[in-house]
Amino acid sequence: MKPGIVFYGWQSAPTLESHLERLRSIVPEAVALIVVDDAPSADLLEPLLRKGDRMVRNSGALGCGARQQAGYRVALELGLDPIVTLPRGLPPELVKRMIAALQTAQVAIGVEAGKRGLASVSQSALSWVQRRVTGLSLTGRPTGCRGVTASALRQVAWERLSPGSVFDFELALALAERDLIVQEVPVPARKKGLGIPLATLGAQVAVRAGIGRVRGRLAFPGPAAPPRGEARSVQRGRSLPLADEGKGTS
Questions:
Q1: For residue range 43-71, what is the model confidence (pLDDT) as tens digits?
Q2: Which of 96, 136, 150, 162 is the most buried (most CB within 10 A)?
Q3: Using CA atoms, how far apart are residues 94 and 109, in angstroms rounded to an integer?
């Protein structure tokens, strides 16, 4: 197994350096793939990379989905398996939890845990839509922290999914509609809640997945066979304890 980690959203060399050092002590066998925008600060990151690491420039693609897609593209080219994505602001310890979850599942999705007051209302509504329409029940918002095996990723045309913030919802549903077991891993809640525009886009994606499920065909592109119509499988993160509240948040 040759695991790889895709970092995205990084434009701060001092912050990234501390994350790289911590990650290397936790998962020494991992290869880190650094995904950043075409910003001047990207040049400051080059000296921090070790042999085997890669800098991926997004050519101005600012959406979080585009950053993850750029990372997946290089990870698959390098033959990495499994692949874990870790956005800025989340603790490196989550990578180890993701790799552990992938011992029993092909997909692990980090979902926000913890109370966020009024900020949780839109997420609750979106979770209800996903559960009722698609059969996929996640206990929180997908965070962009995800682990996936190369074989699972190849079942979805992920490069044709949304390059924006709704990429996380689309990929989660696309993987689930192919009957892949999704293992939840709790992630500390961010300070910023799920906004109404993103919740609306997420609901639209869920409806699209639900219509495909009812019609017995895939809602998202990919080479896998059409779903058989049963409810999607979700296993929540057993033996994967929640990190201390607020730790590693941005």
A1: 777 788 888 888 887 766 567 888 889 89
A2: 136
A3: 11
